Amino acid sequence: MTTPGAATVTAHATTHRLRFNDTDRLGHVNNAVFAVMLEQGRSELAVAAGLPVEPPAEGRSAKSGDARSGSAALVIVRLELDFLQEMTWPGDVRVETEVAKFGAKSFQLRQRLTSGGDLCARAMTVLVVMDRATRKAVPLTPEWRGSLDRWLVPDAPAP
């Protein structure tokens, strides 16, 4: 639901080309591949938001606890995945990802997988920002929140 006059927020979207080896003996896309496609959507959202997705280059140090310096990593702590319809090869899958809400040290994403215009799966994922050195959760910085705000759809129905 959007407020009249408010800017329309659209989900981050990417496309996954199904491969023959994504299928199982039943001829449909294997359930594990759904999780891989969701990961692709989350990773591409992080890149589009400018979040560090790789550790700092060798020889470069990152300030511990600084979520923007590369010392932080995104760690998935929860995944709910509803399989709604089977997918078959060949085809393309649209992966839509939006931010549902922010916590102090985490944020929640809603994702959808569609193929041929049909909603095939929906997911809810919680990601925590972890300090690579201490292996502990660290607070989301205002910069991280700001970089993800364009995909924030807090009042959307559950996926």
What does this 3D model show about the protein?
With 159 residues, the chain is α+β, with helices and mostly antiparallel strands. The chain has one domain (12-54, 66-150): Hotdog Thioesterase (Thiol Ester Dehydrase, Chain A). The chain is built from two helices and five strands, in the order E-H-E-E-E-E-H. A five-stranded antiparallel β-sheet has the order 1-3-4-5-2, covered by helices on one side. Strand 4 (106-115) and strand 5 form a beta hairpin. The longest helix is centred in the first third of the chain and has 19 residues, at 31-49. It starts with 11 loop residues before the first strand and ends in an 11-residue tail after the last helix. Residues 1-7 and 59-68 have low confidence and may be disordered.
In total, the number of strands is 5
Which topology does CATH recognise?
Answer: Thiol Ester Dehydrase, Chain A
**Principal-axis shape:** elongated
Overall average pLDDT:
85
Order of helices and strands: EHEEEEH
Distance between the termini: 13 Å
Radius of gyration: 17 Å
Percent of sequence in beta strands: 25-35%
Sheet bearing the most strands, described? Answer: 5 strands, antiparallel
Q: Work out the helix count.
A: 2
- What is the domain tally? 1
CATH superfamily: Hotdog Thioesterase
CATH architecture: Roll
Q: What topology, given as strand order, has the largest sheet?
A: 1-3-4-5-2
So what's the CATH class? Answer: Alpha Beta
Instruction: Work out the helicity level.
Output: 10-25%
Q: Could you say which structural class the secondary elements and strand pairing correspond to?
A: alpha+beta
